[in-house]
Amino acid sequence: MRRVVQLFLTVGLAIGLGVGGLALAPSAGAHEERPAEFPDGTGAVPHFLGYDNARARVVCKKSSRARIAAMPAGRLKRVNTRLLRRCDFHSIQDAVNTIRHRRTSIYVLPGRYTESKWAKAGRSDYCSHLATESDDPLGATAQYIGSLSGDAVAPEADGLAAEAEETSDPIALSYADQRRCAHNLNLIALFGDATPHDDSIACDSRFCGTQIVGTGRHQGDVLIDNQFSKLNAIRLDRMGGVYLANMTFQQAEFNSVYVLETDGFVLDRLVTRANDEYGILAFASDHGLIERTNNYYNGDSGIYPGSGSDLNADNPEFEVTRYAIEIRNNRSHHNTLGYSGTAGNSIWAHHNRFYDNATGIATDSLFPGHPGLPQDHARWSNNRIYSNNTNFYTEYVDNDVCDRPMPERGYMEGAVCPVVPTPVGTGVLIAGGNFNSTDHNWIYDNWRNGTMQFWVPAPLRDEMDPQKLYDTSHDNRTFANTMGISPAGAVRPNGLDHWWDDEGHGNCWEDNTSSYGEATNNFTLPVAGCDQGGSVFEPGLAVKDAGFLSCSQYDRSDPTLRHPPGCGWFDSPSQPSADGASATGAGAVADDSDVQQSAVVATEDLADEGPLGLLVLTAFLAAGGAIVLRRRA
């Protein structure tokens, strides 16, 4: 029997790989960046240095005096009054540039900061003719960053050469070029590695341990408004020990707050909002803490801990060695995704609220170019994950709002233009991941699925080793969650508590209470408990195609691919009733004929998807055939 199954899989993969010129197109959810690597892990989570650091710079605006005068009497008003007398800067970047010693504090007094000097700065000739570090750069016509595709500021002479007739605007600059041309893409930028041409990415400069702290009573008292002038509002690159707190960032085309290749960082009491893609993005970083933030109106996710330092890559156990990034006591709402993370490895997110997004939490192994794939060892515990049913696709993409120039889309008023596809109405989504723990959460009022898990064929991330075709999703545990009931005891059912495509070994769901009495699921066969080893490996049911093969073709700028053929993710689910009736949540596999019929439909849907579609299709057909043979044996 095993030989027959292996034959189906081998033949299917061989057919796919045999197609000449196999090339994987960039996915809708991929973001472009230089090849990144993980820090060495010798850093530590920094701590607040207080408001009386002797190594300090003070930044203020003309309005700061009146804002401070309006504060209620108390310690914080006295601190601000004292700092106001020391204010020497009106630009955060200007203050940063004067740092001479590590662990310097930048105190930012209440006011609105547009950093206009840096937003409008001209580029040198060198910075106007840069090469990309991306292995698969976006094309010149790609709708990625509007500010860079519009009228460029004329380059300034720098003695290297006269202005050339053509300039370049690559996104994925090398670290050295990012540092030299800090404001090509970034409104505020800090770079910690002063020796970019050696083999170390560690922070070794005077900027290590910098703290940038707003001094207002609330996060909104200090506002950094990028106004879509740059790709990122603030970039913290190789900035070991950085601490950013108590301010609001808004209107960036990529990230409001971007942390990259950094060992040791804290993001505390921030608001990130109205960004085309991400509120907070931490990438290839370690020893991180994200806490007490509020993130909303973001076209991708409010919080993105992607490619977390892969500390447990070689750990065959469910228990982690340690976590790379902790995410606690945050709110992320009214985004396409509350939390997402391609290769979101070694992340612990707890005591957060993810609500009113299209999907609450998602992790995946879908997109190539992310170190640490396939994803592993994240934990989501003690979170409230609820009411993630907001359909931004029909409200804004379908109504052509997202075709307007970015500043005219109404992001500050709540418009969200999804840049990625996700199943509307889903609480927690694992799209290819291993050793993840979803436990002790309140998951309710998600009209499609409370949790959803499916495998992702390795070729989708450019992994062509046939032995790795089915290397996701395994050893995931979902336990001790409260499904369909709010913390106050209100019955607010999910469409289906647990959706699974039946693929993978070691997966288990146990001790989850439900508004339905017993947690509902679409499992073909009962799954053993976690202590008994969980699920036995199955290649997955073709009839249970989760939708990503078609939905991953989503492109908000393409009238056809706004709703890819065969994709149902962007259809608003019906609100489930207390007895479990739902138009889209529940699903079951009836018999072998369903599998065969699904294969026919899949063949038709994927016939036009090119080599990649054929490769993945044959894997699914092999899986379906293996299941039929297994049942008949």
TrEMBL record:
<keyword id="KW-1133">Transmembrane helix</keyword>
<feature type="transmembrane region" description="Helical">
    <location>
        <begin position="612"/>
        <end position="629"/>
    </location>
</feature>
<feature type="compositionally biased region" description="Low complexity">
    <location>
        <begin position="577"/>
        <end position="590"/>
    </location>
</feature>
<protein>
    <submittedName>
        <fullName>Right-handed parallel beta-helix repeat-containing protein</fullName>
    </submittedName>
</protein>
<feature type="region of interest" description="Disordered">
    <location>
        <begin position="568"/>
        <end position="590"/>
    </location>
</feature>
<dbReference type="InterPro" id="IPR012334">
    <property type="entry name" value="Pectin_lyas_fold"/>
</dbReference>
<keyword id="KW-0472">Membrane</keyword>
<keyword id="KW-0812">Transmembrane</keyword>
<dbReference type="InterPro" id="IPR011050">
    <property type="entry name" value="Pectin_lyase_fold/virulence"/>
</dbReference>
